[in-house]
Every structure is written in structure tokens, then in C-alpha cells.
Write a structure and sequence with these properties.
Elements: H1 2-5, H2 9-20, E1 24-26, H3 27-34, H4 38-50, E2 54-59, E3 62-67, H5 74-97, E4 100-107, H6 108-111, E5 118-126, H7 130-144, E6 147-153, E7 163-166
Parallel strand pairs: 5-6
Antiparallel strand pairs: 1-3, 2-3, 4-5, 4-7
Amino acid sequence: MLDSLVTSKTRIKLLLKFFSHSNSGYLRSLAKEFDESTNSVRVELNRLTDAGLLLAEDDGKTKVYKANQSHPFFQEIKGMVSKFLGLDDLVERVVKRMGNVEKAIITGDYAMGIDSGTIDLTLIGKNLDQEYLNFLIHKTYEKINRKVKVEILEHDPGNLSGILVFGN
């Protein structure tokens, strides 16, 4: 969902970094962490600072950035990031422990930016562990308070529309 709202991958990484925890960082360390150019990180840091979402403090010759907790949208952005990370955690666990997952695609309302309370996830792969998947779905509901419906396909039909969260 963040991908559809925010078009810059670097900006998404920065929002996740600063709004998931009380993190701080400086330009070069962020560029290295994200494996991005310092210029692309600098541009996004400037945009987020100009918008008032980040604060920049001088620490000697280095500027240290952190989330502006007094910004009117701080709690809303923090909530969106938290929901996104909960889903991200589910996908990561599915991919690591489910077997041979080729693709994971968020489809349905959530992929269109509509929070209906149900996240539709299509997994493409063979011999996937359905029992473990059911366990993860229950745990994810407890964590992000969203129902997850999963469809498993052995082959990619080629006509799925949504947000690709794993695979090519």
C-alpha cells in the first residue's frame, strides 16, 4: 500500500526507518544501509525535512535526521508503517518457511489502497506448507488486526494484478 501512495522507493525506506522505531541516521550511513546513492537519499531527506516530517540536527559537521514526533501526521504515518511492516513480516516468514514460493502478490482491495480489513495474498509455488500458513495467518491477525485470505497457485496465470511483494 505504501508503494501505491509513495512512488519513491528511497522515500519509502526512509519512512520505514524513521517511523517504525525512534531511529535516527545521517546521510552516508543511510545511503550505505539502503544501498542507494548519497544523492538520491539526500534529495528524499531534504523533501521529508522540508515537509516537516523529519528533523535535522547538526552533530559537528554531520546532520542527523529523525522523525518529527510533533508533526500533525506523525501518529498516522507511524500507524501506516506499522501495518505495512506487519504484512511485510508475514510475507518474509511465508517465503522463508513455506517451501518453494516463487511469487507473493497482494491483490484485491488492499492492493488498490482500500483498507477493507481483509488482505488478499496470492502465493505461487509448489508443495507449500498449508499448516504453517494457517498458523501465520492467525498470528498476523493478532499483530495487525487484518484478516488475511491466501490463495495458492502452482503456476502463475500471468493475469494477476496487484502489488508484487516477492519474486519477479
